[in-house]
Amino acid sequence: MKETKFNVLATPAKMDEIHAALKGYWEKDTWNIADPFFDEYRTEKWNCKHKVINFSQIKSGIKEEAKYFFAYRISNKTLRLQTAVNYGQGYGKVRSYPLAN
């Protein structure tokens, strides 16, 4: 069986938009949701044991797109912090996929 690979590239304009948006705290590869930076996005008392989203294990290019997705959705309040952290926990398992470093 032939394996099909897709190589989807963001346009230069989209990458410029992503890099412009990922300034300040959003630039970091590890986000600690307990940091005061996230206070304005926190709508409920934080009681989850996981408080970190670690993007460092994702290949460059994909990493910026993932951080942009989270930053955009969190800052527009269309993604709760708790949900973002839950999704982010899966990034530790990404190493086994071709998109990982």
What secondary-structure arrangement, pairings included, does this model have?
Elements: H1 12-21, E1 30-32, E2 52-54, H2 62-75, H3 81-88
Antiparallel strand pairs: 1-2
How would you describe this structure to a colleague?
- The chain has 101 residues and is mainly α.
- The protein has a domain at 53-101.
- Helices cover 32% and strands 6% of the residues.
- The protein is built from three helices and two strands.
- It has helices spanning 12-21, 62-75, 81-88, and strands at residues 30-32, 52-54.
- Strands 1-2 form a two-stranded antiparallel ribbon.
- Helix 1 packs across helix 2 (62-75).
- The relative contact order is 0.18.
Class of secondary structure makeup: mainly alpha
Order of strands in the sheet with the most strands? 1-2
Q: Report, as a whole number of angstroms, the end-to-end distance.
A: 26 Å
Helix content: 25-40%
Throw out a few tags for this protein.
101 residues; single chain; two-stranded antiparallel sheet
Short description:
32% of the residues lie in helices and 6% in strands. With 101 residues, the chain is mainly alpha-helical.
